Amino acid sequence: MTFAVIKTGGKQYKVAADDVIKIEKLDAQAGDIVTFDQVLMVGDTVGAPLVEGALVAAELLETKKQKTVIIFKKRRRHNSRRRNGHRQLLTTVRITEILTGGKKPSVKAAAKADKSEAVAEKPAKKTEAKADTAPAAEFKDDVKLIGGVGPALEKKLAAAGITSLKQIADWTADDVAKFDEELNFKGRIEREEWIAQAKDLIAGKAGKE
């Protein structure tokens, strides 16, 4: 099986036809055919640095945020601890063709992408119809759903009268300053975007994982 080594997003990937890989976010829509012209190697042919006339085509499947990566920083003897979360946007693609000699992606590949997109749309409508008839899921109002808030911080907030996401979502700048000082949060409310997180959770978006 012919393979190629491509470079995208500052990283290198060894790929073959029908491989599904996750790469740095691409500016395209699901179902689009995308191409990679930075081909470092095709089979036994090594580029200098790129293989002339080589191209790798792929179908974009989806772009979404990945699992939360927790970043914990601690400074010794300073009683300083910081815990932040980050969710990286990655694009998932399926390799459709490895081309050489200046060839372009075939019409067949583009047609296949259109067909896949149409098939994907069909069950989506069915799912949407079912969702309309299904009862709404019960909202869980738990401050620990905010990234970085654990049992210890939950107790601090409860002692100050804050027990729900709705309260945090309604905070003003004065409230942020007040609780930041009273509870000695040292700016973490703004740094970790608690208000935005609370609003997203109330709206039904995913919380920390």
UniProtKB/TrEMBL annotation:
Residues 111-131 have a biased composition (Basic and acidic residues). Pfam families: Ribosomal_L21p. InterPro entries: bL21-like, bL21-like_sf, Ribosomal_bL21. The keyword Ribonucleoprotein applies. GO terms for molecular function: rRNA binding; structural constituent of ribosome. GO terms for biological process: translation. Residues 110-133 are annotated as: Disordered. GO terms for cellular component: cytoplasm; ribonucleoprotein complex; ribosome. Keywords: Ribonucleoprotein, Ribosomal protein, RNA-binding, rRNA-binding. The keyword Chloroplast does not apply. Gene3D superfamilies: 5' to 3' exonuclease, C-terminal subdomain. Part of the 50S ribosomal subunit. Contacts protein L20. Belongs to the bacterial ribosomal protein bL21 family. This protein binds to 23S rRNA in the presence of protein L20. PANTHER family: 50S RIBOSOMAL PROTEIN L21, LARGE RIBOSOMAL SUBUNIT PROTEIN BL21M. This is Large ribosomal subunit protein bL21. It comes from Devosia marina. The lineage of its organism: Bacteria, Pseudomonadati, Pseudomonadota, Alphaproteobacteria, Hyphomicrobiales. The gene is rplU.
